[in-house]
TrEMBL record, chain A:
It holds the Pfam family CDC50. It comes from the Eukaryota. It is found in: Membrane. Its main location: membrane. GO terms for cellular component: endoplasmic reticulum; Golgi apparatus; plasma membrane. PANTHER family: CELL CYCLE CONTROL PROTEIN 50, CELL CYCLE CONTROL PROTEIN 50B. This is Cell cycle control protein. The gene is TMEM30B. The chain crosses the membrane at residues 27-53, 309-330. One of its GO terms (biological process) is phospholipid translocation.
UniProtKB/TrEMBL annotation, chain B:
Its cofactor is Mg(2+). Residues 1404-1414 have a biased composition (Basic and acidic residues). Residues 64-119 form the P-type ATPase N-terminal domain. The chain crosses the membrane at residues 91-108, 114-132, 316-342, 362-386, 1090-1109, 1121-1142, 1172-1192, 1204-1222, 1229-1254, 1274-1293. GO terms for molecular function: ATP binding; ATP hydrolysis activity; glycosylceramide flippase activity; magnesium ion binding. Residues 629-650, 1423-1432 have a biased composition (Polar residues). The gene is ATP10B. Residues 629-678, 1319-1347, 1399-1432 are annotated as: Disordered. This is Phospholipid-transporting ATPase.
Amino acid sequence: MGKENPKVGKPDNTAFTQQRLPAWQPILSAGIVLPLFVVIGLTFIGIGIGLFITSRNVQEIELDYTGDQEGAPCAGCTNATTNCKCTLPFKIENKFEGPVFMYYGLTNYYQNYRKYGISRDDDQLYGNIDSLKSPANFCSPYQMGAKQMPIAPCGAIANSLFNDTFRLFYKVNKVYTEVLLDDNGISWWTDYNVKFRNPPEINGSLKNAFEGTVKPLNWPKPVYELSTNPNNNGFINQDFLVWMRIAALPNFRKLYRRISEGNWSRSLPAGNYSLEITYNYPVLSFQGKKKVVFSTVTWMGGKNNFLGIAYLVFGSLCIVMALIMLIVYAKYQVQIDRDM
Amino acid sequence: MSLSVDWIRHRFGKLASREASETNSETTPLLRSTAQKRKRIYPHNKHIVFPNNGLFIQDFKKVTSNYPGNKIRTTKYTLLSFLPKNLLEQFYRLANLYFLFLVILNWFPQMEVFHREITMLPLVIVLTVIAVKDGLEDCRRYNFDRKVNNARTRAFDWKHKDYVERCWKDVRVGDFVKVVCNEIIPADILLLHTSDVNGVCHIETANLDGETNLKQRRVVRGFLSPDSPFVPEHFNSTIVCEKPNNDLNRFKGYMEKPDKKKIGFDRKSLLLRGCTVRNTEEAAGIVVYAGHESKAMLNNSGPRYKRSKLERRMNIDVFFCVGLLIIMCLIGALGHMIWLGSFPDWPPFEVPDENGKFTSPALAGFYMFFTMIILLQVLIPISLYVSIELVKVGQVFFLSSDIDLYDEEMDKLLQCRALNITEDLGQIQYIFSDKTGTLTENKMVFRRCTIGGTEFSHQENALRLAAHGDVDSDEEEAVGPQRGHRSRLQFNSKNKSTRAFRRCHSAKAYYYGGYGRKKSEARRDSEVAFSSPLETDVTPDKKLMKIVREAANQMETWCEVRYSSDSASYMDFFLALAICNTVVVSTATEPRHRVTGPSLLKPSIKTLEKLHSFLQKLKPARISQVLSSIQSNSDQTGGTNQISPSPSGTSVSEENVAGGSSSSVSGGSKDSGVSSKASMDSGVYVEGVKVGDEICYEAESPDEAALVHAAKAYNFTLMSRTPDHVTVRLPQGVLLTFEVLHTLSFDSTRKRMSVLVRHPITREIIVYTKGADSAIMDLLENPSLENGKENKINKNASKTLKHLNWYAKDGLRTLCIAKKVLSEKSYEQWSNMRLEAEAAIENRDELLMETALNLETNLTLLGATGIEDRLQEGVPDTIEALREAGIQIWVLTGDKQETAVNIAYSCKLLDQRDTVFTINTDSKETCESILDYTIEEVKRYAAVKNTRTKLFKVPVDVGTVYPLEGAGPTFGLVIDGNTLSLVFEGNLKMKFLELAKHCRAVLCCRSTPLQKSTVVKLVRDKLKVMTLSIGDGANDVNMIQAADVGIGISGQEGMQAVMASDFAISHFKHLKKLLLVHGHWCYTRLSNMIIYFFYKNVAYVNLLFWYQFFCGFSGASMIDYWLMIFFNLFFTSLPPIIFGIMDKDISAETLLGLPELYKSGQNSEGYKWSTFWIAMLDAFYQSLICFFVPYLTYQGSDIDIFSFGTPINTLALFTILLHLAIEIKTWTVVHWVTMIGSVIFYFIVAIVFSATCISCNHPSNPYWIMEREMADPVFYLVCIITPVLALLPRYLIRIIQGTFVLCPLLKARQLDKLDKEQRDEEISEWRKRTRSREATSPGNSGHPLGRTLTFGAPLNVDLGNDGTTPPGRSMLNGTEIEHSDTLHIQIAVTENIYTSIPVSSADRTGDGGKKAEDNSDAFSAGHQRSFSIMTI
């Protein structure tokens, strides 16, 4: 601290050390911020209008097929144990401009529950052989299956994979035409291509690669039989990928399919439809609901009026405040200036 | 802490030694009886020392060697104990325990939230940083200790039978130690031998109590044998004394000889550790207390751990945060329990434990509580502690690089020794200041004098002093030009004198081994010898010089002109100046070696003869005049009897006075004097002067030295002083040696000192008295005795009084000089009385006092002097500014009351209009009733003020009404050390404080270091205010340590104060900028930063908390863990730190211009309850916005958890940074860079992290999230609206504040925007407004000029007017009566000698003493007290 050596010398006489750096010293007052408020207000109103219109243009139809109420189409399936099929007819009033996305939705499902959310092994899913054979402890208790064989994919998330399947039919003149659903690209590109990888195939067979592992407890089939399409099988199965990306909130939807095959890719015409559901996933244990959602998308995603309204309200608020400030400024500032 | 350990050790040591001494008594026949006796008389409370000289080997080993050695250790740790002890100590800190707790919690799998390593990281970092810091500090202490311990001294080794060099640390109790001149005393030593014939050893206790005068210590009775050398081997007594204690002024004990004869001794024989031997060639003694038991060390209470007020306040709020955390965790736990219980069955997302079992909701809730603690840990702002440290480092950097606080001369900057209390500088409410060396330069300068009613203004001297002030840095230049008009003849070249001067300097530099430091030469000069050129140089008044010279010439040339009484009184005056003191003479080349015998000059025999005959002739005439004593009889003249012709030329050379600067004065003028008389053969002088050797004067008080120097300037040079003789050289060059019959030393009750001498030629017995004007004026001879002289005397006295008034108004310290000639017979009478008194056992002090009073009567006034204790530059200005800033200033000084009051007036601490209460008393009851009375009085005025304020509706400053704000009558309180101790002993503390609170200034005089610190502690603890102590000497150390902020002034009195201080500055004036600017800045910066940190943490953590409502209170976090930790660590840390270091709400110029802005800090306006809670509310609001806007935006969509968290994190960053942007008042480049840099850094880190971390960070899944978000327009839309919405309320509030400018700080900020001239104008107008507000507040106008109330002790009775107040400041005659009514005192215009003096000149009525006598019955019985109202 310079005490031992008294010759510390004269301090530098610079603007920095003497705390005289040139500085901008804003003082907020009504007069100064008035234009700012006007500008912000107008901008926000503009954005808000844009957002609101965009959101209004989004078409969306939500179908609950939980079957927890008497007489609902799937009411019979709620307690069934095996593949129970039910059909849900619905009508689209206005044509859905393509591309249309089909989601399944769950409510009151806490994928973000901490213990659940951590229960997976990213390394295993990355195709790491060591992790495949000995999954991380995070997966516990879905780490080891029978005979202490490692579970692949391990963990609670994988174990609880959503396994309802849907088929969509367009009904024209009592003729049902199946609407082709595209399961390509429903997951994140990075998940499919980078983050998730199958373990290296042995002898060209994915099954061999998973040799020595067992399927998750709740799964009917092992992971290498998720799909017949080799590009959609194993850890890189799109449905699996979508499920593994855990939802932020308890009421969520997940992309199930895109309607992008053939003519359907342009639009989903108005008319009657029928949804054939293979009802597997139990939701009554957590008082959840299951839904299917058809929605068009815009640049800002799905339907959400909130943001547009927020911008509009706040923009108007700014304008109002600007007016108040104008009055204040006119009335008081002069007086204050005189006082100073 | 180390100290307390030492204490414990020492206690154990004591116990052991006591046992040892008892066993001894059985083994050693020699000691048996004494030990038993000892046991009987002094059960267990004595400290026994056996000498270490081989005679008592057994006892020595058993008893004395058990006492702690002289080694001192002030370090906390040793190399081995560092790690465990430091860790242990660190874990005493709550914050670290909290960390540890979290780490441990995180190790339980049920509660684990983060990686275990992540949680440990902060703890490890903090521990390491602090350990390194502590280690370095301790290292410094260690080095310091080592230096002291290894300093050298000479101790007696009985095996070698001689003194051998030894380290301080090896000195033990019982050792014989020899110290030589200018050495530091290594331990508390009982003085057994000195080289001085009289057995006297002078020590300087500056290191201990800051008093720079020399103190005499005498060898223990019976050891005074100057002829035979002291032989330690023959020392065969044991020493019994008090247990070690910290009272510097208490020491008693006895020495027991083998024949059981006891020799008592007291503190007069104790050389204290740390003092310096002066003026004594060598001294030897036996060590009685060593090391930590020495009084110096016991007095040196260890440093207090200081925590700033802001931090204390902050810690309370941290506890609120803890409370908040617990509440939030409880909500989490309960919520989790309820949530888990709400499911009819185990949901698929509930994960069972390893055994496949599910945790019951209750247990899960319990676990969740702790999980939540880990998750929400950031709520306890640990980062705040680290940031505060960093901010303080930055603040300290700016503090110490302020060029305005830099002292060019000493090349010294402000030193921050305590890094953690910078912000306290902005909150000071009370300042306790030392006086000498702090307010004043501690340089007494003779300014003017009045002799026989004629005033000599010493214009030249004043000019010189002014010049000196200007060219302070270059003394030679300042001296140079004055010589021109000073004397006609310059026998001495300038070079010569400067060379001598230099030599003097270099000789004075010495090593201060005791505390391992080197005093600078400059310090050495000003400090002890009082011999800086400023003080020694007195330019004689031309007129006076001429008169003196003529008077001398009359005598010399022996013209038959009637020897005028006037010229005689001139001679007498200067003789008195030279003699009437206790100044000791030493030579410059051998600093502080006393000139014991008169160093003689051989005057021409012719002159001597002439003188002698002249005196003989004069004598009869004078004797006839003795009674009238107008003509001072002792006049002038060469002494024959003592001028034993000196045997050699060497003595001539030795004498020659005037080396150095002083020589140039006296030498020059003397020379001129010499040259004017033809008959003299002046060769001797000239020759003598050539080989000059400077005489140094060492005085007990600097004003004595100033007077002696003044006399010397007029060629009355004090040549030597021994207890029995004093030699003065007269202008004629003759040496006159007076026999000193008695010296009645100064005391505060008499307020004067006298010297009783026998004139060498006339054999007359003369009393010279000098003292306070009040003390002398009452004792002048009664003129009615001799009517013829009456007029003249009266005229003389009244004129002198008038002059004294002038002096006092100028803030000079006045002293009156008087004399009296005693007849042989009356002397004998008196002498007998005195002897009796001295021999008396009971009430000896009273008797001595009585005899003194007896002698000092019927004096003849010779004249008076005015001495200036120069204030340091800028002191009045600083004090005024500080006071305007609402700071109460107390002066605690060990100095005399008169001096203190004088200085208080001259530095504007006391105002002319102030009512000053002076309390001096010796009895508790009196003290109490005085306090009661005074409080009542003060309150009455306060009440009047209040009602009037109400009546007139005076506009009061917006916001707070500050104490002392309104003008009204202001009060000052002067209290002395005695009374102060009564206050402390007698539970009058609260009353004292009550009174002091109402006083604008409080002066505590004659207070000991301990009292100083007690006062500070009292005020600090009882009034709950922020205190600052400032001082420069070792006597201020306690006080500096006791205060919240201790400031040492470096460079004046050594490093002791600096070592103990938190900040060291080089001048008092620096305090102004330090407090008003830096204090304000540091405080506002830090408080804003702390508030901001609380806000930041709460706002951020609440985001997580709100999320818990949507994740089943499961402790999940939507924000990636690393980004979360980095958020606090990197993304949002630098801007607030820069804010804390560099933000500048108001410019330095405005702050200095408007000291009242400081009050915001005093009232803690930057950090209040409300501020904290508003910040909390704001944080809650903002976090709600920041969470729910994205929530509502993404609600129901397919968003995944971390894609949801990333925008929240980002907009939280924006919100938090923009919040800071609103708070930042000054945007410099640095602010911009850190602000924008933080945002950019965040994006870079987030992008890189999400691009690279595929499966690296298990629980979270950041891969490619940021990239996707940044490609999504909604992300931007959310990130724009949320911060704006979140910050709107705060922004609005700021706008409203800015528009309606309510608080002075904002007003000042607006001033800053103006250009310079406009601003100055505004500032002065503002101040005018404040002033006028004060002026319009009533009380001030109607109040009389001011008055002085003195409450005196019984002893003061006839000295009621103690001269504390310069006469000019007392109140008017008319108002006096009005006030005396309130005092219930009749003004008794007593029939004293002054009644006949014309009222206009001096109306010294209201003689306190008489009045007190008159009224004493009216007051508490048995206790006399005097209320005096002085009116002039």
